[in-house]
Write a structure and sequence with these properties.
This protein has a single domain, classed as Up-down Bundle (Growth Hormone, Chain: A), CATH 1.20.1250.20. Helix 10 runs parallel beside helix 14 (280-299). The chain has helices at residues 3-26, 28-34, 39-65, 72-90, 96-112, 114-126, 133-158, 161-179, 208-214, 216-237, 239-245, 250-262, 264-277, 280-299, 304-312, 318-332, 338-366, 369-393. The two termini are 39 Å apart. With 401 residues, it is an all-alpha fold.
């Protein structure tokens, strides 16, 4: 099949994912606050979801990496069906306790299958399916942007249940696309049942300590990643409160999310070209610095214009980090470690979210937005220092294996 056809189908997987990501993650606080949760309770719920997700991601990745029935594609299908069922249950008008459990579940599951989508792309590429990863991932961000542009005003007019309706529709479409997304018969790579190991000489490093010794730069950089996404998640999870403090509302929230997401498309679409000129490790450090500038601007923000300026830093922060991390893992790790590598990136992102959720809501309730943002900025700066050291002083792969 032609490259455009495989890219189109993989793009649809990304687009349906990020439509739901907008409603489940970006607007989590909006949905939960509307159902009587306090800022602290929102933080606790998201923290629990993130903790479980961070623990489960490497575990599931280890299973997927091994020969057996659980493949990248099958894991995605299972995840999509869980989110679909959870959203349908929430539509029934359940109690606050049930909302807590179900929302935490779908929030966790969606994070858990994000690295598997990335691994799916590289798996299919190695099987001879031409997929333009950067473009597909960028268009996924564009779908997030378009959803953000309309969903804020839709919530104001129709209520928060519109978020669940969008979840259900996007997950139905996703299930159809992923179910039909099969590698061509006779491909050079492993079969769908994974009955053969890809590389008999390769060794899977499933033990965390062994993995860290094998990939020292990446492992230390993960700590920097936690710091970056402590700040990033602080902004995203409590953006509605930040915007309200600047005189905006749900509509402005939609515009802000649209801006940061649409700016990801051009960067992700051309990231492959830049990675031929600049190594992925340097790109990762650069993205960390952009995360720092993004939250630093918000400390001094007095109006929505400065909020939009901060969101524009997404062009160099998240938009660079995600594809650069994917390419770094693909180029430095052996094949039996690559799903784990992608999962560890997402786990680090998730852990950053955990600490942000636990701390940010409490600070916001007791000390205000300014103190919350100063805390996030300080943590992000520590992450930049760690990233610079990891990528400049440590080897990507241990030489004495």
């Amino acid at each position: 099949m032609k490259k455009g056809f495989w890219t189109f189908r993989y793009t649809l997987i990304n687009m349906t994912y990020f439509v739901a990501f907008c409603t489940i993650h970006a607007l989590a606080a909006v949905y939960l606050l509307a159902h009587g949760f306090s800022n602290t309770e929102v933080g606790i719920l998201l923290a629990i979801a993130n903790i479980v997700s961070a623990i489960c991601q490497p575990y599931f990745a280890g299973i997927i990496d091994k020969p057996g029935p659980l493949t990248n594609r099958r894991f995605i299908i299972i995840s999509v069906l869980i989110i679909l069922a959870g959203s349908a249950i929430l539509m029934l008008g359940v109690s606050k306790a049930v909302i807590f459990v179900i929302y935490a579940l779908i929030y966790m599951v969606q994070f858990a299958y994000q690295p598997v989508m990335t691994a799916l792309c590289f798996e299919y590429q190695k099987a001879g399916c031409d997929i333009y990863y950067g473009l597909a991932r960028g268009l996924g961000s564009a779908s997030f942007a378009v959803t953000s542009a309309f969903i804020g005003s839709a919530v104001e007019k129709q209520g928060v249940n519109i978020l669940l309706i969008v979840n259900i529709v996007s997950m139905i479409l996703s299930a159809i696309v992923v179910f039909t997304f099969k590698k061509p018969e006779g491909s050079a790579e492993k079969t769908e049942d994974k009955t053969e190991v890809k590389d008999t000489q390769a060794v899977a490093h499933n033990n965390i300590a062994d993995f860290a010794r094998t990939y020292p730069a990446f492992s230390l950089f993960l700590i920097g990643t936690i710091c970056f996404f402590f700040a990033h998640n602080m902004i995203n999870d409590f953006m509605i409160q930040i915007i309200r403090s600047l005189g905006g509302g749900e509509t402005q929230l939609g515009y802000a999310n649209f801006l940061q997401a649409i700016l990801e498309l051009p960067v992700m679409a051309v990231i492959g070209f830049f990675l031929k000129k600049i190594s992925s490790d340097k790109m990762l450090v650069f993205s960390g610095m952009a995360f720092f500038v993004k939250i630093l601007i918000l400390i001094f923000a007095t109006n929505m214009a400065m909020m939009y300026l901060s969101q524009s830093c997404q062009l160099f922060a998240y938009a660079v980090f995600i594809p650069a991390a994917a390419y770094y893992v693909s180029s430095t790790m052996n094949e039996l470690d690559q799903v784990k590598g992608q999962a560890f990136v997402t786990s680090a992102i998730t852990i950053g979210g955990v600490f942000s959720n636990l701390i940010s809501g409490v600070i916001l309730d007791h000390m205000g937005i300014k103190t919350m943002l100063i805390t996030g900025t300080a943590v992000c700066f520590v992450g930049v220092v760690i990233a610079v050291y990891a990528m400049n002083k440590l080897p990507s792969v241990r030489t004495e294996m």
